[in-house]
Amino acid sequence: MQQAKAFLTTREAEETVHIGELLGMFINRPLVVALDGDLGTGKTVFVRGAARGLGVEGEQVASPTFVLLKIYRGRLPVHHFDFYRLSEEDDFYELGFEEYLPGEGAAFIEWAGRLPHLLPPEYLQVVLERMEDEQGEGRRIWFVPFGLEASRVVESLFGAVTWRTNGSLHRQQPRDIML
Ligand SMILES: Nc1ncnc2c1ncn2[C@@H]1O[C@H](COP(=O)(O)OP(=O)(O)OP(=O)(O)O)[C@@H](O)[C@H]1O
Ligand SMILES: [Mg+2]
């Protein structure tokens, strides 16, 4: 079941890393995170932060577009998928990847919407979209939790997020929750 969805707005890549990192810090049980959004909206940038929050050190997280899966060692194992080039669900099963969804760690799936049937019933959907307003360009990052664990993680994130305004950190204000 889908719970409340909410968004945060980021104005530069480093802010998206920051949001991803906060989210990663609150993941302490296996969780599948499905990332959607157009090319270049920041899915990989977000996972880079999340991996950091999960304690992955010293490795540069990059798009696993051609290798389909990269595994990083953090507090929990981090599985980073990219479904962009995966056209058939069968390929996925042949590779034996379904054991990771969910597995013993955190799984991040770029372009998850391409093969929605591979997702478990409970997961966190993160959707990135380009936006522009009077302050300039940015990204809107939507959090759509399916299941209690995903909701808990999103709630923790929104409780902890701080924002830089005029050089100082503030709690994020522009928060939109829809039931
Ligand atoms: N607010 C922002 N958040 C994230 N990235 C941003 C932001 N503003 C600009 N960028 C830029 O957008 C690009 C996002 O690239 P990234 O590889 O993360 O996208 P992606 O969604 O993973 O793309 P792909 O679909 O090709 O995998 C980077 O070059 C980053 O610097
Ligand atoms: Mg990417």
Which key features would you list for this structure?
179 residues, Rossmann fold, eight-stranded mixed β-sheet, two-stranded antiparallel ribbon, 4 helices, 34% strand, disordered C terminus, binds adenosine-5'-triphosphate, binds magnesium ion
Shape: globular
Q: What is the CATH class designation?
A: Alpha Beta
Strand count: 10
Low-confidence stretches: 166-179
- Mean pLDDT level: 86
- Can you list the ligands bound to this structure? adenosine-5'-triphosphate, magnesium ion
CATH superfamily: P-loop containing nucleotide triphosphate hydrolases
Global structural class: alpha/beta
Strand order of the largest sheet: 3-4-5-2-6-7-1-10
| N-to-C span | 12 Å
